[in-house]
């Protein structure tokens, strides 16, 4: 996946505000709206842009309880890991899931309406899964920063693409 300095500028803008129009982005990046749309389409098709999302306040939608859960699997086998990844993806309570190195195998960001709801979730999601050795819950006191913005660096080859 290659991108140039103009693509990098577009990515920086989109990460700050994904509601900008192609006209506005193009004007700032020095492109026509059509050229900007072509670049956006290419970056989406190449997987540089994975999704266009809005960050929603868990509290505002009635899910004020937020936890980070460290999960350790009983053993690390491909089928077990793949099965747990699938469970993570299909769970509405799990907002983000990461397969990690270190003391835990996975770190999950989970939201709940109440602690009672979270307890029910733990019973169905963790305790009923015999592949899980243990899990540790860290309750979030305050969400200091929320986002998905990634620093965008321009490749060493800084020539604009002809797209």
Task: Give a structural overview.
With 163 residues, the protein is of the alpha+beta class. Helices cover 36% and strands 18% of the residues. It is built from five helices and four strands; from the N terminus they run αααβαββαβ. It has helices spanning 5-16, 22-29, 33-45, 78-90, 115-127; strands at 65-73, 94-99, 106-112, 132-139. It has a four-stranded antiparallel sheet, with helices on one face. Helix 2 crosses helix 3 (33-45). The radius of gyration is 20 Å and the shape is elongated.
Task: Set out the fold topology.
Layout: H1 5-16, H2 22-29, H3 33-45, E1 65-73, H4 78-90, E2 94-99, E3 106-112, H5 115-127, E4 132-139
Antiparallel strand pairs: 1-3, 1-4, 2-3
Helix pairs in contact: 2-3
Concise structural overview:
The protein is of the alpha+beta class. It has helices at 5-16, 22-29, 33-45, 78-90, 115-127, and strands at residues 65-73, 94-99, 106-112, 132-139.
């Amino acid at each position: 996946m290659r991108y140039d300095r103009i693509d990098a500028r577009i990515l920086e803008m989109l990460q700050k505000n994904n509601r900008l129009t192609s006209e506005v982005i193009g004007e700032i990046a020095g492109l026509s709206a059509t050229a900007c749309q072509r670049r956006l389409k290419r970056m989406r098709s190449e997987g540089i842009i994975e999704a266009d999302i809005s960050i929603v306040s868990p509290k505002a939608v009635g899910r004020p309880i937020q936890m980070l859960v460290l999960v350790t699997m009983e053993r690390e086998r491909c089928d077990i890991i793949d099965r747990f990844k699938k469970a993570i993806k299909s769970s509405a309570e799990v907002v983000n899931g990461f397969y990690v190195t270190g003391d835990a195998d996975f770190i999950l960001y989970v939201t709940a309406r109440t602690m009672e709801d979270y307890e029910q979730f733990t019973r169905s999601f963790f305790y009923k899964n015999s592949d899980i050795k243990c899990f540790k819950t860290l309750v979030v006191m305050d969400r200091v920063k929320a986002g998905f913005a990634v620093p965008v660096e321009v490749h060493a080859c800084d020539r604009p693409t002809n797209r």
